[in-house]
Specification:
There is one protein chain. About 50% of the residues lie in helices and about 15% in strands. By secondary structure, the protein is α/β, with parallel strands linked by helices. The strands form 7 sheets. It has a 6-stranded mixed β-sheet, sandwiched between helices. A 6-stranded mixed β-sheet has the order 7-10-9-8-11-12, with helices on both faces. The longest helix is centred in the last third of the chain and has 34 residues.
Length: about 900
């Protein structure tokens, strides 16, 4: 028997809209509902190997017939979210491009069209699955018609299933809904008749008609209610009865899936920013691209290649190695290229002796007259440096170019960019080395296979450079790219190579202290809970808090009631168990993230930790740190400081020197807003938080308390991040009204600040971007979103980017200048946002302090002075 799947497209779209949040395309338009719809359809297709499908949408003026009967039908429903409407039209476009039959009948609700299809199909012995969670459709179930809820693990309801679920068989569903009513559609029903009551009555008395004809079958209030609301019941029956006479296609072939139109579907996915979907499509229409990928496996071929490459001005390179950690990686081979469609792979484990290959390629790579480029070239730089080869002339890096042009995007990998810009699915590395227990070393991959893989990467690095280079120029980002970001590669590589020394014994001792503290906190929680349970299980914790202890749950999520940090923070003011849980989680995170793992990050040969500094991680241009991330070790807690204590200079007679920009973002706010009161405070070196407190609370400076200063500090920094009254109230544990008064008073005292922040938002609305003082851009297309939540988040980005982005560039400029000008043994080892940390011998401390302070304070001239605080210590804690 042929199976026909009838999809409640409108229901799928609504469900996805509320299930998926904050998803937008490159134009800043919401795509959450559309994406959920496509994924739900794909799951259906995969799970049931469907060949005949129809997606049914509500038609225009779809409720007209029922509104004519009952003007209040669906009246209490909120109007459709403005950013959902276009997604419904896109869903229809998707159906058209993907070869999915779809229907949308004017004046007809989706349920009626679905019912009409089902009735026709059943009459023609076609097994029909109504794909919906709408109980109205249960009235149609029976014989070859079934209800399929793909959101409930593909729950399929036949007649018995309907009765087990609702308490009545399908033929009584209309009466069931007529009496019970439906709050979602504003179907009145009969007051006080709940689902269990109605199901029991229909089971005993047969039907609504029988009950209306014989109200004395009921007693007391139920009888009176039924008599009083007889018309409501009859009206409700009209509203819930599906119209199965809608004219629908009556030829099974019209419901058969068609082949998708791939080029248009790819373009659609690209427009929507659906890279994961794009990747899943075949590459068929790109197989016509010609390429010449060569494996160099003879000395003669190598000599010819070196001679050809030596004549080029710029060359793309890509190294293949045995590890993703560059300082532990052995070079397996290297790819070269200089024009799209052509690349060469030179193996170091092939027929040509390794020493001979190195002897030939080293002079080429060290030639300062040839510019080298690639994708994430810092990795290649490290690997070559391990072998004593210094890449002297880095002329381009496609990952940094992509980031500068599209900092708002998180996707800058070669695979994603090749997919987005050229529709090309690059060969994944897992195709060469496998995964998990079956994974092999890159050194064991057959030469021809690795050659094609590497050459493909080189080829698409060249194509990306050709794509990005003119855009960098057109958008005025050339100076930032060439004079800051590219030179910074070698500065960061030097920091990574130097690494930082960690004393594992300090962490071992601290780990024992943490274990004792965690055990004590666990026992305290168990005592308050009255039983032991798995503290790391959200499900068990929710059960203890909300069921056993009867604590009112503040927030519900898809899997039940939330126990996240935000929820526990709210509960902690009233319930001691929540406060202790927060303490426990904080310590457990420190233990698992740092105390247990950091010793395993120590390099076996250098005895130091070598983290990676990422130039393309944060949209504002800030550097991020990974493997391990040392930027997030807490600095304001006793436990965080104990972890920092484990980091110290490796040699005796050496120190740490930490140089930190003082209130850099507030100083930039003063400079950019030119607010006279704020400028005056910084020019006269006043404590800005005390100064702000005196203005907000209308007090002389001498009467400002710690609490006043704390509140003012929260406002000062909150303003930079676009914080509103609600956020400030949460942070300070005050009412929204009081927080709003703080913010209004702040803007009254600093009127030019308010004007500047509004100017930032207005500018972003017009240009679609925020710009820093150095010209760095962050595209914010979603600032004109129809979704208020997304739009407000975008406005916060528009406000914050000029400050945080400029601060990020300031410290990068200082790093570059210090690295180029410093002559001595001291080394820069860490950057934590506005702070630089150096490892320095005793005899160089004074000289380095002076040079670092002078460089950082004078790297850019502002209307107020830049101030740098310097601290010297024998470990990181002391800094």
């Amino acid at each position: 028997m042929t199976r026909l799947f009838v999809i409640d497209a409108s229901g799928y779209l609504y469900r996805s809209y509320f299930a998926i949040r904050g998803m937008t395309n490159p134009q800043g338009e919401s795509t959450n509902s559309l994406y959920g719809f496509i994924r739900s359809y794909q799951k259906l297709l995969k799970d049931f190997e469907a060949t005949h499908v129809v997606a049914v949408f509500d038609g225009p003026q779809n409720a007209a017939s029922r509104l004519a009967i009952y003007p209040a039908y669906k009246a209490h429903r909120e109007s459709m979210p403005p950013d959902l409407r276009p997604q419904i039209e896109w869903a229809k476009t998707f159906c058209q491009l993907a070869g999915i039959p779809h229907l949308s009948e004017t004046g007809v609700e989706a349920d009626d069209t679905m019912g009409s299809i089902a009735v026709w199909a059943a009459a023609h012995n076609i097994e029909t699955y109504l794909c919906s969670s709408d109980k109205d459709l249960a009235q149609l179930v029976g014989g070859s018609i079934k209800l399929l809820n793909t959101f409930k693990e593909n729950q399929i309801l036949d007649s018995q299933g309907v009765e087990a679920t609702y308490g009545v068989p399908p033929e009584k569903i209309i009466d069931f809904l007529s009496m019970m009513g439906d709050s979602s559609d504003n179907v009145p029903g009969v007051s006080g008749f709940g689902p269990k009551t109605v199901a029991d009555l229909l089971k005993i008395h047969g039907s609504l008609d029988n009950l209306l004809a014989n109200p004395d079958l009921l007693t007391g209030k139920k009888r009176d209610q039924l008599i009083a609301e007889r018309e409501h019941a009859l009206l409700s029956r009209q509203l819930v009865t599906l119209n199965t006479a809608v004219i629908v296609p009556q030829d099974l072939s019209q419901y058969a899936l068609q082949a998708p139109t791939l080029p248009e579907l790819k373009a659609f996915y690209h427009q929507m920013g659906f890279n994961s979907l794009l990747k899943e499509l075949k590459n068929d229409d790109h197989q016509t691209l010609t390429f010449d990928y060569q494996l160099i496996d003879t000395s003669e071929a190598l000599d010819e290649l070196i001679q050809l490459l030596a004549q080029q001005k710029q060359i793309a390179i890509d190294v293949e190695t045995t590890s993703i950690k560059p300082l532990q990686a052995n070079l397996v081979g290297i790819g070269f290229g200089f024009q799209a469609g052509q690349a060469w792979y030179v193996p170091l484990n092939g027929p040509i002796p390794r020493e001979h290959v190195m002897e030939k390629i080293a002079p080429l790579l060290e030639n300062p007259h040839i510019g080298f480029f690639g994708h994430n070239l810092k990795y290649d730089y490290h690997v070559l440096k391990n072998l004593g080869i210094s890449l002297r002339n880095i002329c381009f890096d496609t990952i940094i170019a992509s980031f500068l042009l599209n900092a708002h995007s998180r996707q800058h990998s070669l695979e994603i960019l090749a997919l987005e810009l050229f529709g090309k699915v690059l060969t994944p590395i897992s195709a060469l080395i496998g995964k998990g227990k079956q994974e092999i070393s890159m050194a064991d991959v057959p030469l021809r296979q690795i050659a094609d893989y590497c050459c493909e990467d080189v080829d698409y690095s060249i194509r990306l450079k050709q794509h990005f280079e003119p855009q960098i120029k057109e958008r005025g980002l050339g100076d930032l790219f060439q004079n800051l970001e590219l030179p910074l590669i070698q500065v960061l590589a030097a920091m990574e190579e130097t690494g930082i020394f960690l004393d594992p014994n300090v962490l071992f001792v601290f780990g024992k202290e943490l274990a004792i503290s965690l055990e004590a906190l666990s026992q305290a929680i168990y005592n308050l809970a009255g039983e032991s349970f798995n503290l790391n299980s959200p499900k068990q914790l929710a059960s203890i808090l909300y069921e056993k202890l009867q604590i009112p749950p503040p927030k519900k999520i898809a899997t039940g009631y939330s126990t996240d940090a935000e929820v526990l923070e709210k509960l902690s003011h009233q319930y001691p168990i929540a406060k202790i849980l927060l303490e426990y989680r904080s310590l457990e995170k420190l233990r698992s993230t740092y105390v247990e793992t950091l010793p395993h990050e120590i390099h076996p040969h250098t005895g130091r930790i070598h983290c990676t500094f990422n130039q393309t991680g944060a949209a504002t241009g800030r550097l991020s740190c990974q493997d391990p991330n040392l930027q997030n070790i807490p600095v304001r807690t006793t436990e965080g400081l104990k972890i920092r204590e484990a980091f110290r200079p490796e040699k005796p007679g050496w120190n740490y020197l930490a140089a930190d920009y003082s209130q850099i973002e507030l100083r930039l706010l003063a400079h950019l807003s030119e607010d006279p009161t704020l400028l005056d405070a910084f020019q006269n070196n006043r404590d800005i938080h005390t100064h702000t407190a005196s203005l907000i609370f209308d007090l002389p400076v001498s009467l400002v308390t710690k609490e006043h200063r704390h509140s003012a500090k929260a406002v000062n920094f909150g303003i930079i991040y676009g914080q509103q009254a609600f956020g400030l109230s949460q942070e300070l544990h005050i009412s929204v009204k009081e927080a709003d008064r703080f913010i209004r008073t702040y803007f009254e005292r600093y009127p030019s600040v308010k004007a500047f922040l509004e100017k930032c938002k207005d500018s972003a609305r017009v240009t679609g971007k925020a710009v820093t003082m150095t010209g760095r851009e962050r595209l914010i297309p979603e600032i004109n979103s129809r979704n208020a939540q997304i739009r407000q988040a975008a406005e916060r980005l528009a406000v914050n980017t000029p400050f945080q982005g400029t601060a990020a560039d300031l410290i990068k400029m200082a790093m570059l200048k210090i690295q180029n000008e410093w002559k001595g043994l001291a080394k820069m080892i860490l950057q934590i946002h506005d702070e630089l940390v150096f490892e320095v011998p005793d005899e160089e401390v004074e000289r380095l302090s002076q040079q670092v302070r002078h460089t950082m304070q004078n790297v850019m001239q502002l209307k107020i002075p830049l101030v740098v605080d310097i601290v010297i210590g024998k470990n990181w804690k002391e800094c």
